[in-house]
Each structure stands twice: as C-alpha cells, then as structure tokens.
C-alpha cells in the first residue's frame, strides 16, 4: 500500500518467518536467552548451507527470517533435529522434506565467511514491552522519538558516528505483542508505570556488526556473533537491519563479549 518513492528501496526477495519453539528438553541449568538458544541448532547449520538469515529478537521471543526461495534448503537442513510445521488457515500442519519440490542441498561455500568488524558503543539500553491497551497513552512520545528526535552528530572528517552517543530505537508489533528497545536516557521520557521490563530491570550493552551496509545477501553474519556467545552461555538479543546487525548483551558481561569476539577476529585472520 506504500506509494512508490525514490527514497524507499524494497528488496526483491520475499521473506518467511521461522519461530523456534522449545520442546522442553533443554539441558538443566541452561539460562541463556535470545539468539544464543538457537545458535548451534539453527543459525550455524543454515550458515553452513549458505542460507542468509535476518534475526529479530523481541521481548517475548525470537524470529528468524529466511528467503522464500531458500525454504527447501531450510527444511532439509533443519528436519533432522526439528519437527517443522507451516501455518495454513490458522492451523499448524506438519511439513516433511517430500513437501518441497526442489529440496536439493546447496553446496557449502568454498571460502570462509567474512569476519565483519564489531564496535561497542557506550550507550546503555533497555528491552521493554507495553500492554497494547496502554499504547495510546505513549503514542505521541513514540512518534516524537521515532521521527522528530535529533540525530546524533557525525564526524564530518571520518564520516563515522560517535559511538558514545549512538541512536538506536526498535519498535515491533507482532501478533499483538509489543517489544521496544531504547537507550536508558530515552526511557526516562516515558511514563515509568507503562513500560514493563524483567523483574531485574537489567540494562544491556550493544555490539554492532559491520563497517559498511551489510545488505541481505551475505550469510554467516549472525553466526559470527551468535556462536561464540552460545559457547560461553551468554544471553543476547539480536536485531538485523540493512545497514548493521546489533547484538544486545547484559551490561555486566560486555567485557567478556568483546574479548570473545576479538579472539574470534584474530583467529580468523
């Protein structure tokens, strides 16, 4: 319904959403949340078969977006470990490898995936939700933050953004559930009794991946971050965008995360 515009670019591919639901057989004591829960079993295998994914972590759960044309490869790759269902008319219907017509596995890419640079801004973030019936009470503030707040200053000499004051605001509305990621200073502008967070009220730090726009074609970007975090059992929320990917980790663990990712960078050279 959006009118054509020279200011809007639309990717050619149509994307499908995968939602990974636990069957309750996770090992006792496994506390990691977010993308780390599915790094080994979903993200890494898809990267090995050259499937590009977009990640969207929300307050409630995590979603993996894959290109519709890659669905046969996705099903063949994951069918050995997961029961796969598709939604038809509101009902979940089992899917098997026989249900796809061109389900031949793609060969693994011959070259190692690019290890993109990572940066960690000093900004502290909150992961929040809000009850849908209270959304009108903060609608004006949301519009102001989304469209009218001042952008951070850029260094004209280097063309880079000051990582001490990075702007990042994410709002998602999925099946009636609202999820918001905002910096701690922006949160102070909202009524505190309407924004809901975890009982610990924890703050998060960001690791931003990419030195230039990543686009949607390259695979293995999410795995670059998710695999080492999963190995260390570190919780993370992950949000892919066209320009950069963003992983949010608990504030107290940011030093360990940076060390892990630096070690991965050095070993990949």
From TrEMBL:
Keyword Ribosomal protein: no
Keywords: Cytoplasm, Phosphoprotein, Ubl conjugation
Residue ranges occupied by any Cytosolic arginine sensor for mTORC1 subunit 1/2 ACT-like domain in the UniProt entry: 116-199
Subcellular location: Cytoplasm, Cytosol
GO molecular function, one term: identical protein binding
Record carries keyword Cytoplasm: yes
GO cellular component: cytosol
Similarity comment text for this entry: Belongs to the GATS family.
Subunit structure: Forms homodimers and heterodimers with CASTOR2. Interacts with the GATOR2 complex which is composed of MIOS, SEC13, SEH1L, WDR24 and WDR59; the interaction is negatively regulated by arginine. Interacts with TM4SF5; the interaction is positively regulated by leucine and is negatively regulated by arginine.
Protein name as it appears in the record: Cytosolic arginine sensor for mTORC1 subunit 1
Native organism: Chloropsis cyanopogon
Gene: Castor1
